[in-house]
Each structure stands twice: as C-alpha cells, then as structure tokens.
Prior knowledge:
The complex is a heterodimer.
Chain A: H1 2-7, H2 10-25, E1 41-42, E2 48-50, E3 54-57, E4 62-63, E5 70-74, E6 79-82, E7 87-89, E8 100-104, E9 111-113, E10 116-118, E11 122-126, E12 134-136, E13 139-141, E14 146-150, E15 155-158, E16 161-165, E17 174-181, E18 184-187, E19 190-195, E20 205-212, E21 218-220, E22 223-228, E23 233-239, E24 245-247, E25 250-252, E26 260-263, E27 270-272, E28 275-277, E29 281-284, E30 287-289, E31 292-294
Parallel strand pairs in A: 1-3, 2-5, 3-6, 4-7, 5-8, 6-9, 7-10, 8-11, 9-12, 10-13, 11-14, 12-15, 13-16, 14-17, 15-18, 16-19, 17-20, 18-21, 19-22, 20-23, 21-24, 22-25, 23-26, 24-27, 25-28, 26-29, 27-30, 28-31
Chain B: H1 6-22, E1 38-40, E2 45-47, E3 51-55, E4 59-60, E5 67-71, E6 76-79, E7 84-86, E8 97-102, E9 107-110, E10 113-115, E11 119-124, E12 130-132, E13 135-137, E14 142-147, E15 151-154, E16 157-161, E17 170-177, E18 180-183, E19 186-191, E20 201-208, E21 214-216, E22 219-224, E23 231-237, E24 243-245, E25 248-250, E26 258-261, E27 268-270, E28 273-275, E29 279-282, E30 285-287, E31 290-292
Parallel strand pairs in B: 1-3, 2-5, 3-6, 4-7, 5-8, 6-9, 7-10, 8-11, 9-12, 10-13, 11-14, 12-15, 13-16, 14-17, 15-18, 16-19, 17-20, 18-21, 19-22, 20-23, 21-24, 22-25, 23-26, 24-27, 25-28, 26-29, 27-30, 28-31
Amino acid sequence: VETIMKRVPPGIASLLLLATVLGLALPLPARAAQGYDNCTGFIDTVPATISTQGTWCLRRDLGTSITGGNAIAVNANNVTIDCNDFKVGGLAAGTGTIAGGIRIDGRFNSIIRNCNIRGFAYGIVATADGGGHLIEHNNLDGNTYYAIIVASPGSTIRSNRVLDTGGSTTRVGAAYGIYAMRGTDVVDNTVNGVAATPTDSGYAAAYGIFAHDNDDASVAGNRIRGLAGAGPTYGIYSQNSSRLVVRDNDLQGSGGVGSSGVYCGNNQATARDNVIAGFATGIQDCLSSNNTVNTN
Amino acid sequence: MNRLSPVIAAILLFVAAALGTILPLPARAAESYDNCTGFIDTVPATISTQGTWCLRRDLSTAITSGVAITVATNNVTIDCNDFKVGGLAGGTGTDAHGIYAGSRFNITVRNCTVRGFLIGIYSNGGGGHLHEHNSLDSNTSYALIVNSPGSTIRRNRVLDTGGSTSATGLAYGIYAAEGVDVLDNTVNGVAATPDGSSDATAYGIYTATNGDGSVAGNRVRGLVASGTGLTYGIYNVDSGRMITRDNDVQGSGVAGSIGVRCTNNRATARDNVIAGFTTGILNCLSDGDTVNPN
Lengths: 296, 294
C-alpha cells in the first residue's frame, strides 16, 4: 500500500484521505447490540423448562453436561427463545450423550432464534403433535446425531447454519443435518459436514436434509456439502413426501459410491433448478426440470 | 498488487474504503424498544398518532365484532415484537378483525402473531403499506386483505386459515388488490367451513385488479375443498399485466383444481413449480413453469 500511495496522483490521494476520514468519522450502523427489551425473562441456567408464553432470552453462554433429557424444554405455546447469539452447549457430555438442546414437545408457534447449539445428540427438536414453529438464524455445531428435527406441521426452518453433525457413539449408523416432517419448509440453510459413527458392520449413512412425510413443503435455497461416511450419502432424501418441491439448492458431494444428490422416491415430487455435483446419481426418481447435474 | 496500475489500485482502495462507511451491516439484535413511540398494552386499541407503536406482551380479546387494533392515522408502524394479538376467544363465529387500517397511507405491520380473527390484517383504501414478518394463524376467513395500491406483503407465515361459521363457503390465505406485491410468504392450510350447499372453496393467494403487482417466491399448499368446491393455489381476477413467478404451489389432486389462474395471457407466469392440481396454469402466458402432473 505504501508503494502504491507514493505513486498515486495527488487528486486520487486526496480522495483516499477523504474516504479514510469518512470511515473514521461517520457512525456505523448498529450491529450486534443485543436488545433485551422484549424479553419476558431470562434463561440463566440449564436445564430449564419454559412454561410461560413470551420471549425468553439468553444473556450469557450456557453449558451443561447432562447426557439425557433436554437443556431447554418448551412447555407452553407461543414461546420465543432468543439466544442473542449465546451458546447452549452440551459438549461436556461427550459423544455418548442422548440429550437434546432445545425440545418443543406438543406445542404451537414456537420460535427458536439466534441460538448457538453445540454438542447434543439432538440440537433442536419439535415433535409431531404441535405446529407452526419457526427455527431461524441459529448455528448448530458439533451435534452428534440430528442437528434439527421438526415434525410439526406448518413449520419453517430457515437461514440456519448446520455444521459438523455426527459422531455419536450411542446412535450409530446414520447422521442427519436437518430432518423435516409433515409440512415443514426448509429454506436457505447451510448444511456443511455430516458424518455418522459406523455400526459394528461398518455402515454409516449421511443425510444432509431428510424430508419425511413432507408433502406440503419446499426444500429450497439450501447449500449442502461435506457429507461423509462408510455408507451412502444423500444430499436431500425424501421419503413419502409425494408433492415436495426441491428447488434452487446447491449440493456438493465427494463422488462416493451409491451417493445421491436428490432422492425423491417417486415423480410426484419435483426437483427444479438445483445444482448438483459430485454424486454418483444426481437426481433419483423425482420429476426433474432444469437442474444442473455436474458429472465431472 | 505488483502488476496492478497504481491508479487503478488506488481507486479500488477508495471504493473499498467508501463502501465500508456506507453499507449497512446486518442487524442481529433481539428486539429493542428504543424506537417505540408508545406501547399497546391492551386491546381493543386505536392508534391516532404517527410513529412506531409496540407490543411488549401478548394481548388477546374476546370481541366478536370490531377491531383489536385500529390504525386511524397515516405513517404508523405496528411492531408486535413477536407478541400475539389473539382473538381465538371470539370463537369461530367472530366477525372481528385483528389489525385494520381504512383509507390510511404508509402503514407497516411487523413481527405480529395474529390469531383467531375473521380477518387477521386488513387494509382498505389508502396505500403504501408494508406487512412483513408476521405469523397469521387460525384466522377464520381471510388471514390478510390488502386492498391498497403500492403495498407489499412479504415474508409472512399464513397458517390454518378458515373455519368461520359466520362466513362460510370460501376461505382465503392472502387477498391482494389494486397493485400489491406478494413476496416470499408461506401459505399453509386453507379450509373454509362448507356453506349451506355443503361446498367450500379454498384460495391460497387471491388477487384482484392487481396488474401492477407481482406474486413471487411464495409457497402455497394445504388447500382443502368440500362438496363441489375447488382449490386454487394462486387465483388472479382482472389480472392485467400481473407477474406470477418462482412460486411453489402444491395441491392434493382435487378435481377441477387450478394451480395458477389468470384472466388472460397479458398476465405472465414464469418459473413456478406446480404439483397436484387438475390444471397447472390457466390462461396466463406461461414461460419456464414446471407443472408436475404425476
């Protein structure tokens, strides 16, 4: 830069000086100034159970070494958990844990937002007998079996980062980045790194996104890569999800034998405008329209 | 940098520095009340002063007519901070509305959970409204009606609309008219109570005289009909030059159902994915759509 500056004409140098001054003088937009104004209350320790509607916030990183149960259980409808980017950590329990990070059991209209969830067998779980949840802007890292499971109709999983899922020593043979059921949209997530611990017979399947009984849903705009294992790898795997729409996803495999980019089960499901590279089979059984399958 | 002209390099540095000063960084905060003009702590309420009016707790009412929150002036933002405006206590016979603005301009409704009203969010006349990031759940006839030019309905979740016992036969997820953009919403579940003839028709998104509007990037599904009623994913009346694109529209194979319907081919449907309808696209000029007939 110094060399460049010496050779810059005076007019340009003046502009650079002006830009520097502006950079120092102008206020930057507010960023990461977490507001707690709308918090109904705070979750300061885990395990915790939320039994009152409202917005429940974190204001510090939390961790637990429980190996069963759940760090945060949502036990009322209309609950928002806003972690304000703080951590709900379960790594201390080790890879044998069967604990969950946040569990919504039979409730409606939950929002889980801005959470950093690590080291649980199940990062975020919403069971089948509720609905209308929104899981967004979370970071799920190092969860050992499923990062996110949502089985609740009318829910949305969007804009989450799902990293390095797998490694459980008690739930072996398969690992799942996102598992969505019964009408759950999966939109604009990044799933990077899924690798299960093999069974005794050496089998380990990796699923980036698994859609199960998910007819009334879209899997769209996601980025899936880093699938590994001693068994098959699937970018997006659809089971009994007849009219599922799979579109605009980027799927990158590593060329594993038996791997499949998008698997639909039957052609009532539609795959469109996906970019798929590095899978033995790009698209399997779907009605395929305008996808790009890179076989190189 | 060795092979870069010094002048070019300097210009690049200048641009980078300038961009660093002016581009907004993403806001990542939990909700703050700093910009609230005041708070809505009970309903029914009427807003008569411009500014940002906030919720700080869940609110509910058992009214069976009238409006929970009436916006009676221009340039008002209702920010519910994810809290609820609930009307379920009014029952399925309710004629009440959740949030209403009549002949007003520049109304924003944001981060609201609106439940259990005959109409969840309703604006009629006026214009320039923005309804975004709301959750509309279990409203009994219409989740949203925006009949106001230059308005935008975006990124809302519209769930389980229908069930009214006072307005039977028809139910609508989103109703937009007179030049309204409908963008990136999820409409999941529309089912009317059958009328006296045991018929019920469900509309995911319904537009009327919306030639100056786009319906784009929405996800529409879970439409249920009864009797001789039908299901329509996106139904455009007097559609003019409306554009319907990039929507995912999923039906359940109801006989006579239509995925995307236009009045004529002045309206354009492009890059939609449509599955589970008897007719995928009707009357529109269709370009690059995928209709899954399986």
